[in-house]
Amino acid sequence: MCCQKNPRTNTELSFLFPPPSMFFFFLFGSLGDKTASVNCNSIWLDDIQGLVTELFRTDKKPDPANWQYKSLYRGNIARYKRRSNLCLGIDLKKQHIIWESSATEKKSSSKRTERYFTKGGLKLLNVDGIPITSKSQISTPGSATWIPVLQRDTDNIPSTSYVNPLGVYDPLTTLWLQGKGPPEDDSRKQQETQEKSESGTSHLMKKLEEHNRMVRENPRDVKAWMDFVSFQDELMRGPSCFTMTEGEWETRKKSLKLVLEKKLAILERAIENNPNSVDLKLARLKLCMEFWEPSAVIKEWQKLVFLHPNDPVLWQKYLLFCQSQFSTFVVSKVHSLYGKCLSTLSAIQDGNMVSHPALPGTEEAMLVIFLQQCHFLRQAGHSEKAIALFQALIDFTFFKPDSVKELLTRGQVEFFEPFWDSGEAHEDEEDAEEEEKIQNKSLPKWQNWLHIERSREAKHWLPWRPDKTKKETVDDCEDPERQVLFDDLGPSLIKISSPDLHFQLLCSFLQFLGIPCSNNLLPSFLYLALDENSIFDNGQNSQGPLTSFDLPLLGISCIGQMNSVAQGGNHVGHPKEGEEFIQNFFNMILPLFSGKKRSDLSVFWLQYEISKVIWCLKIRNKKKLKLQGKKSKKLAKNLLKAPDNRNNFSLWQLYAHLEWLLGNTEEARKVFDMALSMAGGAGVRTLQVCKLGLLYAELETELLGAPEGSLECRAVHILTSLVEKSPYVPYTGKVLSVNILKARKTYQHLLQEYLSEGSVSEQEQTSRSSHLVGVVGSYSLFQYLTLGIDAAVSIYREVHEKLKGMKPSEWLSSQNFTQALEAVTLMHASLLRYHMKTTVYPLHPLREALLEALKMYRSNQPLWRAYVQIQSKSHNASKARRFFDSITRTTKSLEPWLFAIQVEQRRKKLVDSVQRGPNGDVYATIPETGLTNRIKTLFEHAIETENGAHCPLLWRLYIDFMVSLGDKEKSKGLFYRALQNCPWTKVLYMDAIEYFPDELQETVDLMAEKELRVRVPIEELELLLED
Question: Where is composition skewed (Basic and acidic residues) in this entry (predicted)?
Answer without folding.
Answer: 182-198
